[in-house]
Design goal:
CATH class of the largest domain in chain B: Alpha Beta
Distance between the termini of chain A: 32 Å
Number of domains of chain A: 1
Mean pLDDT of chain B: 79
Strand order of the largest sheet of chain B: 20-12-13-23-22-21
Largest sheet of chain A: 4 strands, mixed
Number of helices of chain B: 27
Structural class of chain A: alpha/beta
Strand order of the largest sheet of chain A: 1-2-3-4
Oligomer: heterodimer
Radius of gyration of chain A: 13 Å
Number of strands of chain A: 4
Helix content of chain B: 40-55%
Low-confidence stretches of chain A: 84-101
Number of strands of chain B: 23
CATH architecture of the largest domain in chain B: 2-Layer Sandwich
CATH class of chain A: Alpha Beta
Number of domains of chain B: 6
Largest sheet of chain B: 6 strands, mixed
Chain lengths: 101, 728
């Protein structure tokens, strides 16, 4: 598998992630909203996977192995995180509520 | 030229003029809803007109401006100077397009890039007010997000993949990866507000923004299949190169705020305000990489001069130092050339002509009937009486036709006056002087030729007034004048003349300095100079090659300005004079004939030939006893009403022989030439007449002392003299 749930705090992407990984990653992130995604072993990822990373605003760990991911997508996701503040805030609120529960 | 395009050009120019005057009015009163509406309507109508002639880029550019204006209209927000500048810049571009269309008769083909530049700049200015949403103003945001990289980019691309792209097993980013010369990629969700748990990971709901350093053609080749989901923008590398060191919209609004702060009229705390505003501006400019601009602001701050500080900040805001002047030239040149072709006439004036034509036909028919009767040889007396009657009617009708035709050529000064506020604003900004420019009597009418040819000379006079006449704000305060100077442009009718005046409340002409320069340049002999009155000295500024400016600036001071003014005005049959009072101000007065086509003449006879003299040059005719004429060297003069008037004999000066009249008296015509009295001795004084003067051309073209010619009733050619040239 190219997407793996390591524990509730971390998810790993590795190798070439096809579009099907998007659904899986989405489910993992929904269930583990504070999880950090380690993509240091990831060489390529389908747009659908990148879209989930973008929408979740999750924290990314490491530098991706693939040059395109490293050279362009990493910076794009970082810049985008700064932009989608309303959503990120909503996520925080939900997270804190779930922790209180 | 296509009829649509012709009509389009005509209307578009009018709309541009209206929009420009409303925009400038907004600058003084930013919350005037009527003006905002006016500007909005003008842009909206222009956009519609562009659509009719299928001029898509112009429509796109105007649409961008219009949508910003719509925001101001609905929100009653105060419109900022930056927005006004951008709107004016957009109008300038539209004017250039119109000129191209006028020249080629077709919609310009390469207008896309210029339109994109406008859209980019406009969206850049609107960004602060507009809610950020993907897809809107994306180019401007891309530029702000990638300040360093934007300069290298040649193509910007916005890619909105189909929502079902993933189902079709498309991988949009993989396609982007194929692009050569990638500079940067930005990603955005189509709906950033959508909660994460409701998104569908199988639906593509994102937008991709890309900068690359390859040209659009290469990009199109690679993304060919998806081109309908891609918006491409070719970026001009040259201007982009500056944009790395131009101000972001945030920087601009910070600088604008500093200017507003500095313009506050309160005296107390001024030094503190200057220090604060200065250092903020310097920081903003440094941060934007505009070291030169920062340095000039720093200099102005060190000098402690608020006006020059404002000027230096405004210069930085304009981005292109020195570019403003060339723009003025650009905008003024083509429209004056273009305006000559079309004349809009009130339909009632045309109706008058139609009616007169009808009456003329009646007279013509009556004449035919009379001719038949005369041919039959019947009732010679009756025919003669009828003929006299018809001649009277014809005389009246021809006079009316003449007047009606001239009325068609009459235009209100407004058409020319309304073009001034803009250059005045730009000139005053470039020299850092505050000026309140007002226009009076712009509904005064004058002949089309006059209205159209006065723009350039008046602009010269205005430049001179702003550059030399108006003092610096400090100097004004020192002499107790308000720091904002006033310049009035006014027109009014005075008998058969139209007077145009430019009045300023500046320092007036520096008489001593004019004397000095005139002596240094040898314009006038030293002893003559010593005898000249102050008013005569001031008049020397109209002499060719004269300039008192201590330094030659871009604006004026090359000594051609006032000289050129006199030339143009005199060509139109007018006169120019200046009335200057030290430290009070000066008034430049242009006295022009109401119409250039009709001239009132008086005829004079000399050496058996008849000549015409323009009646407005003639002051008086007199008979002078010969014993009162004194010879001075080779010339002659006489005293007339306590003034010495030089006298020339027309026959001698035209080389027609100098027959000394044996009569004890001389018939003289006293004229005013270039503001001075001069008399011409003639043999006989003739009659007065109204004529249509033909300008001198052909053989007479090079003859000095001749204004033009006309035909006399008996078929002889009447040569009309130019009094001024006779005396030179």
């Amino acid at each position: 598998m190219t997407v793996k749930l390591i524990d509730k705090n971390s998810i790993a992407l590795a190798g070439t992630c096809p579009s099907e990984d998007a659904e899986e990653l989405f489910q993992y992130l929904l269930e583990n909203r504070l999880a950090v995604v380690d993509w240091s072993q990831c060489e390529q990822a389908h747009t659908a996977v990148i879209q989930v990373l973008l929408a979740s605003g999750c924290e990314l760990k490491g530098t991706p192995a693939g040059s395109f991911l490293h050279g362009h997508i990493e910076a794009a996701l970082r810049r985008a995180r700064g932009q989608i503040r309303p959503f990120a805030a909503g996520l925080e609120v939900r997270n804190s509520r779930s922790r209180q529960d | 030229m296509n009829e649509f395009i012709e009509q389009f050009l005509l209307e578009a120019r009018e709309l541009i003029e209206q929009a420009t005057s409303d925009l400038l009015a907004l600058e003084h009163q930013a919350d005037d809803p009527e003006k905002i509406d006016g500007v909005f309507r003008a842009f909206h109508t222009l956009k519609g007109a562009a659509g009719i002639v299928d001029f898509e880029p112009m429509g796109r550019a105007l649409h961008a401006v219009e949508s910003i204006l719509a925001g101001f209209r609905s929100r009653t927000n105060v419109i900022s100077p930056t927005i006004i500048n951008e709107c004016l810049a957009c109008l300038d571009q539209v004017t250039r397009w119109l000129d191209d269309m006028e020249a080629s008769g077709e919609v310009p083909s390469g207008a896309g890039a210029a339109a994109d530049a406008i859209v980019r700049r406009i969206s850049g200015t609107a960004e602060l007010d507009a809610p950020a949403s993907p897809g809107r103003d994306w180019l401007a945001r891309l530029r702000d997000q990638n300040p360093g990289q934007f300069s290298e980019a040649r193509t910007a691309l916005r890619y909105v993949p189909n929502p079902d792209a993933f189902f079709r097993s498309e991988d949009p980013l993989a396609m982007i990866e194929e692009l050569p010369g990638l500079i940067s990629i930005d990603l955005a969700l189509s709906d950033p507000a959508q909660p994460f748990d409701t998104i569908n990971p199988f639906t593509c709901a994102m937008e991709i923004f890309v900068l690359t350093n390859v040209d659009t053609e290469t990009v199109i080749r690679i993304v060919g299949g998806a081109s309908n989901q891609i918006e491409l923008h070719a970026l001009d590398t040259k201007p982009r190169a500056d944009s790395a060191t131009t101000l972001s919209s945030l920087g601009r609004s910070i600088l604008e705020a500093q200017v507003l702060l500095l313009r506050e009229p309160r005296q107390n705390g001024r030094a503190g305000r200057m220090a604060a505003a200065g250092s903020v501006s310097i920081n903003v400019l440094r941060q934007a990489g505009l070291e030169a601009a920062a340095a000039s602001v720093a200099d102005a701050l060190n000098d402690g001069n608020a006006i020059s500080l404002i000027a230096s900040i405004e210069r930085a805001l304009r981005e292109k130092p020195g570019g403003v002047l060339s723009e003025i030239v650009d905008t003024s040149r083509p429209s004056s050339a273009a305006a000559t072709r079309v004349l809009r006439v009130d339909t009632t004036r045309i109706d008058t002509l139609v009616n007169l034509t009808g009456e003329l036909t009646v007279v013509k028919n009556a004449l035919g009937h009379l001719a038949t009767r005369a041919q039959a040889g019947l009732d010679a007396k009756g025919v003669a009486a009828n003929l006299r009657d018809l001649q009277t009617q014809l005389d009246r009708l021809v006079g009316e036709v003449q007047r009606a035709v001239l009325r068609i050529r009459v235009l209100p000064m407004r058409q020319m006056f309304q073009r001034f506020p803009r250059p005045v604003r730009e000139i005053s900004a470039s020299v850092g002087k505050l000026i309140n420019f007002t226009v009076e009597g712009d509904d005064t009418e004058a002949d089309k030729a006059i209205v159209e040819s006065l723009f350039e000379p008046l602009l010269h006079v205005l430049r001179n007034a702003i550059d030399h006449g108006i003092e610096d704000a400090e100097e004004r305060q020192a002499t107790g004048k308000p720091s904002t100077a006033t310049i009035v442009l006014r027109a009014f009718r005075q008998l058969d003349n139209v007077i145009v005046e430019i009045e300023d409340d500046g320092r007036g002409v520096d008489v001593a300095r004019v004397r000095e320069v005139a002596a240094a340049r040898g314009l006038v002999a030293a002893d003559t100079l010593a005898r000249m009155t102050d008013a005569e000295i001031v008049d020397l500024i109209f002499v060719s090659g004269f300039s008192t400016a201590r330094e030659v600036t871009d604006l004026s001071g090359r000594g051609v300005g006032m000289d050129a003014v006199r030339t143009v005005v005199e060509r139109l049959g007018g006169r120019v004079s200046i009335d200057s009072r030290p430290n009070v101000g000066s008034v430049v007065r242009l006295t022009l004939p109401f119409t250039v086509m009709m001239t009132r003449l008086m005829t004079i006879e000399s050496a058996g030939q008849v000549f015409g003299l323009p009646l407005d040059m003639v002051i008086e005719t007199a008979i002078i006893p010969r014993d009162r004429i004194v010879s001075i060297g080779g010339a002659a003069a006489f005293a007339w009403r306590d003034k010495t008037v030089p006298l020339i004999s027309l026959a001698t000066s035209l080389g027609l022989g100098s027959r000394v009249s044996d009569a004890g008296q001389a018939r003289v015509v006293i004229t005013s030439a270039g503001g001075q009295l001069a008399a011409i001795e003639v043999e006989r004084l003739g009659e007065r007449m109204d004529v249509m003067l033909k300008p001198r051309e052909g053989l007479l073209g090079g003859v000095k002392g001749v204004t033009g010619t006309t035909l006399l009733g008996d078929g002889r050619v009447l040569i009309v003299l130019d009094v001024q040239e006779l005396f030179n």
